[in-house]
């Protein structure tokens, strides 16, 4: 590497499986811009290696021996915060633990294949290295929670035609939580596309439902879109679209190729909202890598919708919002802890749409 080249991203892999440590090491060391500086079979060994090697990114197995992975992650985020990517199993327990890890401050996760581990992990190599690159650039955010007894926001009396349309990726699970928790029970309907593999969105929706005053569920094809409910796109195989059935909004789940390398895609949801809701929708683009959602948000704005993008300071990864802002898709740029208030304020009438970047 030349003297002018950027320093390689230093990675430490923590996993009790020797095979996984070997495969992840090969995947990382095949890239010119990163290197595996050490591997550890458990968190206790990892603790010493972190002190020794000072890695930029840690990959961490969800279920670990000698010390629970969540306990280790919690201690790490308090004492030596650093970007962490979880290696998660595609099970209900694995998805629940992964969501808890994201709440504790993990940046992202990669799912381990159920079958043919070696081949499956190698095929996930591109995803692993892209997420390591994203994590190396990520802004670490301390976990937040609303004070006990905090009063919900108040939604102005508006037509049931009003909708919030939300897209997010890396860092989005916590951003979505911060957006949904303050929402009153009578908030307009909310449709959400969060980049997430199949098997995780059901657990995510259940977790959000337990924390929020509105009802939160995984979206189902053909169901009516109602106020006071949030509908999360099922991960993996289908895109979420807004559709019409007579006078009602309905959910449409459609198979199709990935858009911007994602299925479900934020652009697909936003474009359907531009077509079927127009100025009755408010588009919100949150933290995430890449550009998914930027063009769709622009279409929403051109159709008369109000549009918001999360600000850089509160994003884990300021990729998708940056792309939207750059093309003029965002009417305003808002910190995540004020996003729900700003979105509700936009329901009040045209005068509230004077917001600008």
From TrEMBL:
- What cellular component terms from Gene Ontology apply here? cytoplasm
Where do the CheB-type methylesterase domain residues begin and end?
157-350
Which is a GO BP term held by this UniProt record? chemotaxis
Q: Where along the chain is the active site annotated? A: 169, 195, 292
User: EC number(s) in its UniProt entry?
Assistant: 3.1.1.61, 3.5.1.44
Q: Which reaction does it catalyse?
A: L-glutaminyl-[protein] + H2O = L-glutamyl-[protein] + NH4(+); [protein]-L-glutamate 5-O-methyl ester + H2O = L-glutamyl-[protein] + methanol + H(+)
Which positions carry 4-aspartylphosphate? 61
Q: Where in the cell is it found?
A: Cytoplasm
Q: InterPro entries from the entry?
A: CheB-like (IPR008248), CheB_C (IPR035909), CheY-like_superfamily (IPR011006), Sig_transdc_resp-reg_Me-estase (IPR000673), Sig_transdc_resp-reg_receiver (IPR001789)
The cross-references to SMART domains, in alphabetical order and at most eight, read: REC
Q: Which post-translational modifications are recorded for this protein?
A: Phosphorylated by CheA. Phosphorylation of the N-terminal regulatory domain activates the methylesterase activity.
**Notes on the domains:** Contains a C-terminal catalytic domain, and an N-terminal region which modulates catalytic activity.
PANTHER family cross-referenced by the UniProt entry: PROTEIN-GLUTAMATE METHYLESTERASE/PROTEIN-GLUTAMINE GLUTAMINASE, PROTEIN-GLUTAMATE METHYLESTERASE_PROTEIN-GLUTAMINE GLUTAMINASE
Described purpose of this protein according to its UniProt entry: Involved in chemotaxis. Part of a chemotaxis signal transduction system that modulates chemotaxis in response to various stimuli. Catalyzes the demethylation of specific methylglutamate residues introduced into the chemoreceptors (methyl-accepting chemotaxis proteins or MCP) by CheR. Also mediates the irreversible deamidation of specific glutamine residues to glutamic acid.
Concerning its family, UniProt says: Belongs to the CheB family.
UniProt name for this protein? Protein-glutamate methylesterase/protein-glutamine glutaminase
């Amino acid at each position: 590497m030349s003297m002018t080249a950027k320093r390689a991203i230093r990675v430490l892999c923590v996993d009790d499986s020797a095979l996984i440590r070997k495969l992840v090491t090969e995947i990382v060391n095949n890239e010119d811009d990163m290197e595996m500086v050490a591997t550890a079979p458990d968190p206790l060994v990892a603790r010493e290696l972190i002190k020794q090697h000072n890695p930029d990114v840690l990959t961490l197995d969800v279920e670990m021996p000698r010390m629970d992975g969540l306990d280790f992650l919690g201690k790490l985020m308090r004492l030596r915060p650093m970007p962490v990517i979880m290696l998660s199993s595609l099970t209900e327990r694995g998805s629940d633990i992964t969501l808890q890890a994201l709440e504790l401050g993990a940046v992202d996760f990669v799912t381990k294949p159920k079958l043919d581990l070696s081949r499956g992990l190698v095929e996930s190599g591109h995803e692993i290295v892209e997420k390591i690159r994203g994590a190396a650039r990520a802004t670490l955010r301390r976990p937040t929670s609303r004070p006990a007894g905090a009063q919900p926001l108040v939604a102005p009396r508006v037509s049931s035609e009003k909708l919030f349309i939300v897209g997010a990726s890396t860092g989005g699970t916590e951003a979505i939580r911060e957006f949904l928790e303050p929402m009153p029970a009578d908030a307009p309907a909310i449709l959400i596309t969060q980049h997430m593999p199949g098997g995780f969105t059901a657990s995510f929706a259940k977790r959000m439902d337990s924390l929020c005053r509105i009802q939160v569920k995984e979206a189902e094809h053909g169901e009516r879109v109602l106020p006071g409910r949030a509908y999360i796109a099922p991960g993996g195989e289908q895109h979420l679209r807004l559709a019409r059935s007579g006078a009602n909004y309905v959910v449409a789940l459609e198979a199709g190729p990935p858009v911007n390398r994602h299925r479900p895609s934020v652009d697909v949801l936003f474009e359907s909202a531009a077509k079927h809701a127009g100025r009755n929708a408010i588009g919100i683009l949150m933290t995430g890598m890449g550009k998914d959602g930027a063009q769709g948000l622009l279409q929403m704005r051109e159709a008369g919708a109000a549009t918001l993008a999360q600000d850089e300071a509160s994003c884990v990864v300021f990729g998708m919002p940056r792309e939207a802002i750059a093309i003029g898709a965002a009417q305003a740029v808002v910190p995540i802890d004020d996003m729900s208030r700003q979105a509700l304020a936009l329901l009040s009438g045209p005068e509230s749409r004077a917001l600008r970047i």
